[in-house]
Every structure is written in structure tokens, then in C-alpha cells.
Amino acid sequence: MPLPDELTGELRPESSPTRSRIVDAAAEVIATRGLAHTTTKEIARAAGYSEATLYKHFRDKDELVFRVMRERLPTGFIETLAELPTRAGKGSVRTQLEDVVRQAVSFFAQSIPMMSALFAEPALLTRHKEALQASGLGPHHANRAVAGYLRAEQRSGRVASGVRPDAAAAMLLGACFQRAFLEHFVGEYAVETSVEKFARDLVRSLMEGARPRADDQAS
Description:
It is built from twelve helices and no strands. By secondary structure, it is mainly α. It is elongated and about 70 Å long.
């Protein structure tokens, strides 16, 4: 199914093979060298082109980094969020949320190094935020999608009426982000369980408070 505009925007624009190869090379060089030490000359060399060719497709390094951020983030999590409205009432709430957790951890694990690079370049961060606002994109839409799913399940009586969907979504996704952050910042030893067990334990803990009581179902 097509993804809604607020979740996709311009994440995957059409591009020429040359342009796509340059973006791929930029993503690899940034991941290896870090944004501060990455130059357009290195990126062009890694892509197998001259700097002149690079500048035919991108105005400067900032524009290239911006396109890497927009076009090379993993899409599985975004697709899962886009499908959530159609999942309400299907399967179990626990199974659906565990899938969200698995996709979120993978997304954050892959995107944190790239997103962190933005904070080293204030001008680029400002430009990125302005572009997100203009296109209706942004990480807050993930919270809204999960909260919307929980509200739909509340209406069907499968989630307790006392649950606050916005807070529950923040707890769920915040825990996923923290897991990915700890693995990058501290190391794998800081993450004691597999992603599968983490998803089960996290959702189980959340659902203990979200499970509808007899009076919820009777109302």
C-alpha cells in the first residue's frame, strides 16, 4: 500500500544511477570517517567519480549530507507505522506492538550515527528541521502513529480505557531509542537481551497496565 504523505514525504525521490552512487558513497564515508572529517573529494573518490561530477548533482557538501539523511534511512519502520491504522482489531495488540518495537530498534540503530552527525553541524541541522517542517515529516509522527493505533484499540475495547495513548507511545518508542543509543554509545555488553526478548518484555510490561479490566469491557 502507498505510504501516507506525512510519513514518507520525499524519502525516496527518483534519481540517476550516478547520483544514487554518490549518495551511497557519501553515506559510507560519513559512517567511516565521521561528518567533520568527510570531504567532497573523499566522497567523489569513493564513488569513482571526479569532484566535478559530484558538483553536477549537488550544490555542496551540506546538500549531499542532507540527501543522505533523507534518502538512506531504513524504511521498514516507516512502513510499519503507515500500516498501523489497518492493523487495529487484527491479531493481538501485543503482537502488533512487538513488531513496532523490533522495527523501531532496527531503525534507531541504523539512523542514530547519521542523525548524530547533524548536531555537529548547526547550519545543516537548521536546514534539516526546516525541510522536515515544510514537508510535514519528523520523528514526532512515529509517536502519533503508535498513539493513534492505541486509541483505535481502545475504541474496540482491546486496550484499557485508562491508558494514555500519547504517554504509552512515548514510553514504547523512547525505550527503543534508548536501547539503540546504549548499544552505540556504551557497547553491546550494555544490552543484555536479544531484540526479540526486549520486544516481548517491553510490550508485556506495557500491556500489564493496558489490558482492559472487566469494568472497561462492560462499559
